[in-house]
Specification:
872 residues, Rossmann fold, GMP Synthetase, Chain A, domain 3, 5 domains, nine-stranded mixed sheet, seven-stranded mixed sheet, 39% helix, 18% strand
Length: 872
């Protein structure tokens, strides 16, 4: 019986605090004597209300001491506990109550409205109100707990797994299942009665009920309940109550780790280097001699967790190796177990004496594990056998037969065992993606790789029409810090860069950006079927509810005038302050330039060049404008629609014009001429450079040269291929990150590079380009915006079409091959290669619109690249 150990323990520590919960007026505490008395009283009262052995009794409530007492009372009475997720909707609650045949339900005031209105079972309310009150059940005064009313094989709990809507799958756990698993955990000797377990996970999960109810109370330890997942509140509670064990999921510990290392990154370089050395030193000590000096090295970090904090217990999903490694290197003790609802739950544990990052450990006592049908790499389905394995799925004999075979439970998790018996999970068999080519992909492994990209907060890989596709939630805080306003372009570029070393079938072929968090279970696991539905809808979401604080913002005159400007740039109606300029309103980086200029005219002010990259939402934009108006400047002007003709007709700032003198002196011309000759010789010998179509070059500017962009060798190769007469009047657009330093800027002036930040100062880049062309110069623009990461040509940006159209400037398509092989993205030293540069015929933009110009230019370059490939 489950309660035998708990009752014996309670009788030896009656006055000790068993359960406490943080409320608005402090902590409410229950001693073991009070808990035992409450369990006995409620169990007796249930019998008096007609709840007999084997009857189902549900709980629908947030975490609270009454939840624990009700749970233990039901099990004590021989009835079957049916814990329900407090976040279920009314329809789901009704379905599960009906499916389980519950005769009674314990409910909190916060969840009462979710109960079905008709055919209600006996309702017992945890809070004051109408009907039967929990406090009334506790008023019974029995002498002791009821004698055991159930055998070990009797059903004790019926637990519904996530995703049960419409087709409930109830896991049946017996008294012996739970008792045996509790015994296995106790045999690990990890904890004692001095512990204080912090419970922040919902108790309806077997992981939480085992780790935060059965285990602590069997030990005689204390359970502290906190109904908050906010980091500061968790740390405050740990401090106030002396928590020693934090029971959480990987998502929680990943967040704590991120917060710690974000603070470290804010420190000076010398401090960061010292911290890195201390982390390495502590890691070596712990692995070689078992000494942990992390608490000494990182006293400030550990002080935030309190003096009694000992263990971070992770479960519910796999803990990422880097999270485990960083936390242990900081001096924390992190333990990880693996299990499922069907196994009561714990199956394996990563032993403290010899832990392996990334492993789920070895089997716990009394549990057997084997890999079923392993492939040539030893990978197969993880199967479990032991007294902890469930009785089956309620009313589902076929589903039960699928997973229970010859005494073994087939988990659906794929993995392997190393030579020392440690288990490693590689994915879920049901989540495995099989592409049309027959290639198999385990999405969790790839998602872990792509999450290294700092601009990605969440990612879920799915099977799409074109292959592997990704639903991504950006890390907008990171993008804001980096002044990166175009989240999709930034993330697509980083994904392309990261995947260059992966086999082609693992490349992401489709990408959709989502603003809201992806759907997950209460334990943080991705609900892939839900993500697939969202992806198919293209991120379609329900209309936002405008909060009161937003209503006041909508009435502000600044907001009203801004919304008038936005009407020209977005087709969305009923714009609200929370709308994201890119994801909700569809503004790309060029639209932002137009919007900024429109606001300048409409408000009668000058905005900084970086304004468009500093705001992400309508609310951001309003607040930023109000900062500018804080000095007393009145909002003036009328609604104005700004065209690109207006924008490009304006000269760039004097500072920018002075940074690139268009009239060069004798010395600079000589230096450029010598550089041109050196580059020509190098590319002729080292790159075997050949050119064709030079006769298509105009004798003088203005003109735009538009090559494809393969590598950093492209611009030098263009200089080497052009005749001196053209080189002397040709200018290049370059990124500030490469040409913005004191030395690099001097080189930029010499070789006619205009260093600009295309993300934060696109406005200036467009105006500077137009200015150079109006001076009769030749401008070389790489229309892809960035170099290729895999050697293939990318989509051309619309900006080049805008400039050509508005200034009526001819475009010269240029095809480059060979530079990618010479200097690919992962190399700093060039390799010998064969480079070919072809100059096409001039394109006249007058009769085409922006998109047609870009399309025509792209097709011309692609056609020349195909011709070049035939000649190689």
């Amino acid at each position: 019986m489950i309660l035998t150990r708990i009752q014996d323990t309670a009788l030896h520590c009656e006055d000790k605090i068993a359960i406490q919960i943080k409320g608005e007026d402090g902590y409410h505490q229950y001693t073991y004597k009070q808990v035992l008395k409450g369990v006995a009283s409620v169990a007796r009262a249930l019998l008096e209300k007609g709840i007999d052995r084997g009857d189902r009794v549900a709980i629908l409530s947030e975490n609270r001491p009454e939840w624990i007492i009700a749970y233990l009372a039901v099990v004590s009475s021989g009835a079957v506990i049916v814990p329900l997720d407090a976040q279920l909707m009314e329809k789901e609650v009704s379905l599960l109550l009906e499916n389980s045949g519950a005769k009674a339900v314990f409910v909190s005031a916060a969840c009462r409205q979710k109960l079905p209105r008709n055919r209600l079972p006996l309702v017992i309310s945890f809070d004051s109100g109408s009907g039967l009150l929990f406090s009334d059940l506790q008023s019974v005064h029995p002498d002791a707990l009821l004698p055991p009313r159930a055998s070990g094989s009797d059903l004790a709990a019926l637990l519904y797994t996530s995703g049960t809507t419409g087709d409930p799958k109830g896991v049946m756990l017996s008294q012996s299942n739970l008792a045996s698993n509790l015994g296995s955990v106790l045999k690990l000797n990890l904890f004692d009665q001095q512990e204080n377990f912090l419970c922040i996970l919902p108790m309806h999960h077997t992981y939480s009920s085992m780790a935060c109810i059965l285990l602590p109370l069997a030990l005689g330890a204390t359970v502290t309940i906190l109904n908050s997942l906010k980091g500061p509140e968790i740390l405050s509670c740990i401090h106030e109550t002396g928590v020693s064990v934090l029971v959480g999921v990987p998502q929680l510990f990943a967040g704590l780790r991120r917060a710690i290392f974000d603070e470290i990154q804010k420190k000076p370089v010398l401090v960061r280097l010292t911290v890195k050395l201390m982390l390495v030193f502590n890691s070596l000590l712990r692995k070689t001699v078992g000494i942990n000096v992390g608490k000494l090295f990182f006293r400030a970090v550990h002080a935030r967790f309190g003096k009694k904090f000992k263990i971070a217990a992770s479960g519910g999903a796999r803990l990422e190796p880097d999270v485990y490694t960083d936390m242990t290197d900081l001096g924390f003790t992190v333990i990880e177990g693996y299990g499922l609802t069907e196994t009561s739950p714990l199956c394996t544990f990563n032993p403290l004496t010899k832990q392996k990052a990334g492993s789920i450990g070895i089997p716990v006592p009394d549990v057997e594990i084997k890999i079923s049908n392993p492939d040539e790499h030893g990978q197969g389905e993880i199967t479990v056998r032991g007294p902890n394995v469930m009785l089956g799925y309620y009313k589902k004999p076929c589903e039960t037969a699928e997973v229970l075979q010859d005494g073994w439970f087939y988990t659906g998790d794929l993995g392997y065992q190393d030579q020392e018996g440690y288990l490693f999970i590689t994915g879920r068999s049901k989540e495995m993606i099989v592409l049309s080519t027959g290639k198999k992909i385990f999405p969790e492994e790839l998602e872990k790789l792509y999450k290294r990209i700092p601009a990605i907060k969440e990612i879920c890989l799915i099977q799409g029409k074109r292959g592997l596709e990704a639903a991504v939630v950006p890390d907008f805080d990171y993008l804001r810090r980096m002044n990166l306003s175009n989240s999709r372009e930034t993330i697509a570029f980083e994904i392309e860069d990261l995947s260059k070393d992966l086999p082609p079938y693992q490349h992401i072929t489709g990408l959709k950006i989502f603003k809201d968090p992806l759907p997950v279970t209460r334990l943080g696991k991705l609900r892939r079927s839900k993500v697939q539905e969202l992806y198919a809808k293209g991120g379609e979401r329900a209309a936002k509810v405008v909060q009161d604080v937003d209503r006041s913002l909508l009435d502000d005159p600044v907001t009203k005038k801004l919304l008038e400007c936005l009407e020209h740039f977005s087709a969305k109606k009923n714009i609200v302050p929370d709308d994201n300029l890119e994801l909700d309103l569809g503004l790309d980086s060029l639209n932002r330039v137009e919007l900024v200029v429109s606001m300048e005219r409409s408000f009668g002010i000058n905005l900084p060049d970086s304004f468009g990259s500093e705001v992400f939402t309508v609310k951001d934009t309003v607040l930023k404008l109000k900062e500018i108006f804080a000095g007393g400047l009145m909002v003036a002007g009328e609604r104005v629609r700004i065209s690109w003709s207006d924008i490009l007709s304006q000269d760039p700032s004097a500072e920018l014009r002075d940074s690139l003198p268009l009239e060069t002196g004798y010395l600079r011309n000589t230096a450029l001429f010598l550089l041109k000759q050196v580059l020509t010789i190098l590319f002729k010998i080292y790159g075997r450079l050949s050119t064709e179509g030079l006769e298509n070059l105009p004798s003088r500017g203005p003109c735009i040269i538009a090559p494809n962009h393969l590598s950093f060798a492209d611009a030098p190769a263009v200089i080497a291929s052009l005749p001196w007469k053209i080189v002397s009047q040709t200018y290049f657009l370059g990124a500030t990150e490469y040409f913005g330093g004191p030395i690099a800027s001097r080189i930029a002036r010499l070789i006619h590079v205009i260093p600009l930040d295309m993300d934060t100062r696109l406005h200036s880049a467009m105006q500077m380009s137009a200015y150079v062309l109006r001076q009769g110069k030749v401008l070389c623009i790489f229309p892809e915006g960035s170099r290729s990461r895999d050697g293939s040509i990318k989509e051309f940006k619309k900006g080049i079409g805008i400039i050509a159209k508005e200034l009526k400037i001819s475009l010269l398509p240029v095809a480059i091959t060979g530079t990618y092989e010479m200097l690919p993205p992962d190399r700093n030293i060039p390799l010998p290669s064969k480079i070919r540069i072809s100059f096409g015929t001039l394109l006249r933009p007058e009769k085409l619109d922006y998109d047609e110009i870009v399309k025509t230019l792209y097709e011309a370059v692609v056609a020349m690249l195909k011709e070049n490939s035939k000649k190689v």
